[in-house]
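chain below, 256 aa
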Amino acid sequence: MFPKLFTIGDFFLPTYGVLVALGFVAGLAVSVRHARRAGLNPETIGNLAVYCALAGLLGAKLFMFALDWEYYSRNPGRLLSVETLLSAGVYYGGFLAALLFAWFFVRRHRMPWLKVADVLSPGVALGHAIGRLGCFAAGCCWGQECHLPWAVRFMNPDAHAITGVPLGVWLHPAQLYESALTFLVFWAVQRRALKPHADGAVLGLYLTLYSIARFGVEFVRAHDQAFPFGGPFSTTQWVALGLLAAGLWMVTKTRK
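prediction:
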């Protein structure tokens, strides 16, 4: 679509990076507001969000390497290539890495873990929804071939060079599906966060709704990796099912 905002010589500003940065700033602003409402230190929450973003970027890349290990083991030079650095990575890898880092950070600072998670959840949803628009602009995380009225074609050679998206083929706009659904998730968890709730209720709702959305979108995503266990579900869908179970357990527990 439009992977480069502008180019000067060999330098270019990637649209994906700009939208991810905008998503982070928007999500951070939302989380800081919720931190004030919850009586938490906004500066500490802001620092935690920055550290989680860095941990998430690392986790997303490591998860991507793990899923495509056969390819990267044959092509080690691709590990630090421009294409790899600009790729989105695997969201769940980033989410789990950020969640693990947040747990250690919160314990070290003696903060209420579930309350902090509730504060961060709306910001994570908003930032992710905006970031998926960047995926669409870059061409990564593309969908399967289809011929529906809303199918899209990528024609920009730069998009193919950076992400490998097939050109001239009608595809499901899987990135837009996920972005739209994640905006709805943000709307739902934002409403829940603004109402009185038990600690962990917002996190549980986020895990439940996003896992359902991602599980569904995966059916129209293009996959290079073989599905584990020889079944119909991708690795991401299995992770989604695990987090869905955790989310439903938290929603049930906090309702009681």
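Residues 10-255 form one domain. Strands lie at 4-8, 11-14.
thats it, cya
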